[in-house]
Amino acid sequence: MWRYILKRVAHSVFVMWLVATTVFFGLRAIPGGPVRAMLGQEATPEAVAALRERLGLDQPLPVQYVDWMGDMLTLEFGRSIVSSERVGTIVAQAAPKTFSIAAIGVAIGLLVAIPAGVVGATRRNEPADYAATVGAFLGVSMPSFFVGILLAIVFGVWLDWLPIVGYTPLSEGVVPWFGSILLPAVAVGLPYAAGVTRMMRSALLETLDAAYMRTAVAKGVGGRVRLYKHAMQNALIPVVTVAGIQLALVLGGSVTVELVFSIQGLGRVLVNSILERNYPVTQVAILLVSGVFVFMNLLVDITYTAIDPRIRYGGENA
Amino acid sequence: MTDAGGGDGASPADGAADAATARPDGGTGSTDGAGFGIYEGEFGAGEVPPEYETESYVEEHRGIADRVIRTLLDDRLALAGGLVVVAFVVIAVFAPYVAPYGPEETFAFMKPPLTSSATGSGEAFHLLGTDSFGHDILTRVVYGARVSLLVALATVAVAFSIGTTIGIVAGFYGGWVDSVLMRYVDFQWAFPEIILGVGIIAVMGGLGVVNVVIAIGIAFIDDFARIIRGEVLSIREEEYVTAARAVGMGDARIMFKEMLPNAVAPLIVQATLMIPLAILAEASLSFLGLGVKPTTPTWGLLISGGRQFISQAPWISVMPGLAIMLVVLGFNTFGDGLRDAFDISQSEVE
Questions:
Q1: Complex ipTM above 0.85?
Q2: Which residue of A87, A93, A224, B344 has the lowest C-beta tally within 10 Å?
């Protein structure tokens, strides 16, 4: 099991290195280079040369690469071109907002999806199943930002229950913080829940059909134990996979939902930096979002070891 | 899920729910038996040897297309989805005839749905209201269908061609070619598509339809690459491939003329299921202001244009949002039905 985990960690580090390298070369592949893009077409050759020197772009590529990797690893991110604020500060202010939305979104999504999937599978072809199925179908068909706008209209404008603009930090109290991210979290959580519900339902249906379930009935195992101990344990394995893969949906959704609720999270920072051609910020934002994503994938992989005995005992081949 | 308990934890197959069980009426139809060898006949050398010119061969030959259509016709949900898709395609193609007004024509600002506004020559009726610029929303949504569907189709075409090439080459040659290509695909696969798209846009700079198509197209190649590689691996040792080699066909011809047609069914299904994802991705990019140029009417931009006015005029954002939902729902139900009709297991198509 430890070997398995170590292997996954090594793989994650490798992926992050690949991402960083891609970002490094990607930014240097911009037509005319980032300096042209930053200064505009009218910039004098002297200004271009000066900025190139300041950013170290006049060095040979391998030197730049090593320097740049060193900077990233030591968290020396440089300064924003637009506000000359430290990039580290900008990102550190934005990150908690995005992570709050994503974390609560995933929690809400799972709280909705797992019961809905279980109901769908255990009461197959009953009204509750239809409701879950139709709901899930609608959920996968709506972009998160549209869910966000609908929520803002209903709960913000019509009912006036929750704020629809801005973010309240956790330091100002749990309730205001929760109120400010509840709608965005639901907006990213519902499309997430839809995918997980469909998986939960079909995985559970499949295990309920399995031969060992019939054996359990024959042995006289009670209905509840049968469902939660025998069926669920096996059904959860593919569900964890989907729940993990679809975390991408939550992060991606957060980028658009932040715009709906005017929250200056990582998504806003990333998009604005692209629009302003603020490359020092763009590269760090991309690295951070990817880093979070790779880390979450790693967590999902490690979760397998907890729920899948084949990995726990088998190690390698799992 | 055929590999539900399998060790391949990150199988793409698990990405979507099992269509057959997700469908309340369970419309899977009978899809076994008749005609799995059919593809050879359909896409092979072209001439049918006389000894095969029998009634039963023709029956079998006609089988697959027939079977797919019949299963789809039995599947009411898929049929409804297909009709929605067709309706949107017709609307998009004939936008100038379907739309009540011109895309740039302006009327009174923010008229609610089902109201009329006075114009120089009488009254103009607005089924879906008008937006903050005074554009008729129905008109803008109709023209938006053009951009959204076109971008989605082009995107899937880009993803299909690149992804299929990568997957077929990887599967055909195996060895280190396979390792390198699939390592890349795995890397991309483990990555949020929208972030990838945004990153590519960042590198390309500038807005516009072509950039969006390239960005989302590249972000989607992994799915096609994985599917076709799996298919190629399973047919690599088939007799007709060996035969093609024996008669001295070049690698490229074997790959694209012999193998590709035999692996086309799951690709068609996957493409159908990718179109709605492409529509959603395009809408997201446009909504963020990273998509098409701000003057182009597209659903994402229309929603974004109404964002500031959700308290006074919620319909500005809601109407184009409903359009997205409807067409994506249509593609999803149709695609799921198509998968059942082709009888492709979940493990082959995400």
A1: no
A2: A224
The whole-angstrom distance between A174's CA and the closest CA on chain B is 27
Task: Please state the length of chain B.
Answer: 350
How close is the nearest chain A Cα to the Cα of B252, in Å?
30
Beta strands in A100-211, from DSSP E residues, in sequence order: none
**In chain B, whose CA is at the least distance from the CA of A318?**
B7
Cα(B25)–Cα(A132) distance, integer angstroms: 14
At residue B118, the 3 state secondary structure works out as strand
Contact with chain B for residue A129, Cβ under 8 A: yes
Enter the tokens of residue A70: 């060193």
Measured between CB atoms, which of A18, A26, A164 is closest to B187? A18
Q: Are residues B191 and B131 in the same domain?
A: yes
**DSSP 8-state class, residue A86:** B
**B220 neighbors B277 (Cβ within 8 angstroms):** yes
Q: Which of the residue ranges A153-167, B157-171, B182-196 has the most confident prediction, judged by mean pLDDT? A: B157-171
DSSP 3-state of B125 = strand
pLDDT score at B16: 39
Identify all chain A residues contacting B287, using CB atoms and an 8 Å cutoff: 143, 145, 256, 259
pLDDT at B113: 78
CATH 1.10.3720.10 fits A87-307, yes or no: yes
- Both B141 and B249 in one domain: the answer is yes
Burial class (CB in 10 A: 0-12, 13-18, 19+), B196: buried
- Cβ neighbours of A140 in B, within 8 Å: 332
One domain, residues B103 and B30 = no
Cα–Cα distance, B73 to B284 (Å, whole number): 33
- Examine the domain organization and report whether B23 and B123 are in the same domain: no
Q: Is A317 in contact with B7 (CB distance < 8 Å)?
A: yes
The alpha carbon of residue B66 is apart from the nearest alpha carbon of chain A, in Å, by: 28
Rounded Cα–Cα distance for residues B168 and B232 (Å): 6
Of the partner residues A125, A260, A274, the one whose CB lies closest to the CB of residue B198:
A274
pTM for this one?
0.79
Q: Which of B61-70, B175-184, B245-254, B328-337 has the lowest mean pLDDT?
A: B61-70
